[in-house]
Amino acid sequence: MEWSRPNTKITLSTKRNPLIGFEVLQVCRIKHVDDRKIESLTSGARIIWVPQGQVPFYSEDRGTTWVASTGAPAGAMKGTTIFQCFNQPLAADRVDSNIFYLYKSGRFYRSSDGSTTWAEVSSLPDSGDWHTIQAAPGMKGEVWAGLDSSGIYRSSNSGDTFTRIQKVQRARLMAFGKAAPGRSNPAVFVYGRVENNDGIFRSDDMGATWVAIGDSKVPIGNEPNTMAGDRQVFGRVYIGTNGRGIYYGQLLE
Fold this sequence. Notes:
The structure is a single chain. By secondary structure, this protein is an all-beta fold. It is about 0% helix and about 45% strand. The chain has strands at about 1-5, 10-15, 25-30, 35-40, 45-50, 55-60, 65-70, 90, 100-105, 105-110, 120-125, 130-135, 145, 150-155, 165, 170-175, 185-195, 195-205, 210, 225-230, 235-240, 245-250. The chain is globular.
């Protein structure tokens, strides 16, 4: 599948995973396009796209045509090149297929109709160019905001209100992963500072307690800029860098 705009041609391939119900999306750049974030609904038919410097767009026909959303701010994706857009301002609720979340400059927005319209629902600290919005798998309305030196904020009501996770002092990267054995909530991973210690951490109880999981002998340098928790293997987490490849850590046998 592919679509175009002046001087731009984008190819989108999708592959459905029947185990999790979401589409796996890949964007191939041909010529030049300033975009960084795409989310898909559980149905896989509607796709949300946030180009740099513009409002979100949505497609109801898997990318054949696109419509600009209303009510959302322009410029949630920062910068003008691929080297300036490591922020992750957009997330899809992992239970309600109509709800999407968007963050920009300390303001939190929600769409309840698949990105057709947006409304500002709450405020958060302004983290500048570095932030991550993540929705918890299997938990309707559970959305977290990793705000770099402002730490992590948690909402359990789709962003109406947020509470700070007190022990996290910095969240450069954040991700959800498979729940620990015997627990129903997902694990949470953080690359940042927890209780005055820098490193990589995991919480199995939604941020109440944390365990350090990083290895000081294997530093992850060169601007780590993305993190993903494995949804199939408890304790496994991936970190992507800006030139040193992808690292992953997991529990020792």
